[in-house]
Amino acid sequence: MAAHVGASRTPQEVMEHYVSMYIHGNLGKACIPDTIPNRVTDHTCPGGGPLSPSLTTPLPPLDISAAEQQQLGYMPLRDDYEIEYDQDAETLISGLSVNYDDDDVEIELKRAHVDMYVRKLKERQRRKNIARDYNLVPAFLGKDKKEKEKAPKRKVTKEEKELRLKLRPLYQFMSCKEFDDLFENMHKEKMLRAKIRELQRYRRNGITKMEESAEYEAARHKRERRKENKSLAGSKRGKEDGKDGEFAAIENLPGFELLSDREKVLCSSLNLSPARYLTVKTIIIKDHLQKRQGIPSKSRLPSYLDKVLKKRILTFLTESGWISRDAS
Fold first, then answer.
1. SUPFAM superfamilies recorded for this chain (predicted)?
2. Percent share of the chain, pLDDT over 90
């Protein structure tokens, strides 16, 4: 209108003249009634009714590339996916129609279908909100790793990771910030408890100032290091003495070098020479193989092998996998 009038009037001046003359002036009062009859009714119930658009308020679209949108099947203008949660939810109301001859039961049944559909829509939107809040889409696309590298946080312990896994069902009831704050507060509580125990230990040892604690800690570390060195030296010495004395009775006998470490321990505990053990072992394994092939065989065990020794050797060979359990 301003362009039609010419350069003498600005758009703002033209608008003010139109409103004052044609809407609020005598012409507007004569033409525009105070109450407008037959106004169109909004059946979508924007105030929160059964099919209100406000039930599923769309979130701002995800900031992802076109290739990533195609990978996810994401439609940014609608904030929808090609495959939604409960994909067939619309079938509950797609065939509904209101007829003038519907009785009360049919009307209540159709209302129940609408209520079921609304519940499914709310659940679908709730899952979208959780995925958006916890950044599940960037995590799926691998973008969260780059963000974590840019913003370093405190190191998460193994116990905290296990606790997060156990409490994962609570994600749907808490926002991401509330969940992070929960674990941050738990970490602070743990640190404070450790600090309280440390200060109580200082007080039990007669330390009342923090300046004295540094000297106490240095002396304590020296004592602990001295104890560790003594215990390591004693354990090494005990192992060496044990190795020297454990096989002293059989290490010079023939066949000792053919035994494994476990067989050496067995022979030493049974007070059996390596040659005799190898003989018994060969006979038992040979008899076992003949039985598996269906060849009848008589046990030709030496006379010096009593029942106790035989049982111990059979058990050892079975546990080591030389013979099967049914043979023993």
1. Homeodomain-like
2. 4
Q: Give mean pLDDT, residues 243-250.
A: 66
Residues 116-170 pLDDT 10s:
998 898 888 888 888 888 778 887 887 765 555 555 567 778 888 888 888 888 8
pLDDT beyond 60 at 51? no
Question: Domain locations in the chain?
Answer: 1-35, 176-232, 256-320
The residue count of the chain comes to 328
Q: Are 258 and 281 in contact (CB under 8 A)?
A: no
Within 8 A by CB and 6+ apart from 97, the residues are none
Q: Which long-range contacts (CB under 8 A, 24 or more apart) does 273-278 make?
A: 274/250, 276/302, 276/304, 277/313
Tell the burial category of 196 from Cβ atoms under 10 Å away from its Cβ (0-12, 13-18, 19+).
exposed
Average per-residue pLDDT for the chain:
79
Please tell me which residue, 127 or 232, carries the higher pLDDT value: 127
b/e for 212-226, b at 16 or more Cβ within 10 A? ebeeeeeeeeeeeee
CA dist 144 and 135 (Å) reads 8
Burial of 117 (0-12, 13-18, 19+ CB in 10 A): buried
- CA–CA distance from 211 to each of 193, 195, 201, 207 (Å)? 21, 16, 15, 9
DSSP string, 151-176: S--PPPPHHHHHHHHHTGGGGGGS-H
**Residue 316: its H or E element:** helix 307-320
